[in-house]
Write a structure and sequence with these properties.
mainly alpha, Double Stranded RNA Binding Domain, 2 domains, three-stranded antiparallel sheet, 70% helix, 11% strand, rod-shaped
Length: 152
Amino acid sequence: MSEQNKTLQQEMETILDNMRDRMDKLTKISQTMLTEAEIRVKSELFTLEDKWQMANATLEKFSAATEGARQEIAKGFQETWEDLSQHFGKVINQFKKEGISFLDKWDLYQDSTGQWRWRRMDLDEQTVGASHAGFQTREDCVENAERHGYQK
């Protein structure tokens, strides 16, 4: 082998060694970068999972709290309604006992013969009074109903 070939071969081997060194360095750098990227991704995923769990826990607490509040509101409404109904029922019964009739409904109508009549109904739609005769005009019917408690 000639001296020139030996020198070329040595230069080639040096270049190849340098390339191998660079490739090793690049491989290490890429592995380091990949490892850092994996760590960042895992960290982000962990952070996202933590955020998801916190959000889910908050949602569960909120759901439980709103359900409890909804039940309390419904219970309060039901109790208030029952109290009002009971009180209103007592008041109506007292009015009925005392003959107070402002809650009664009055019906002025023409019967099948064309005569005007009146009837008075309580809150339960039960007839509690009625005209005993028919009247030729509506005005006569109203006058008779007024004598029995009707108010315009």
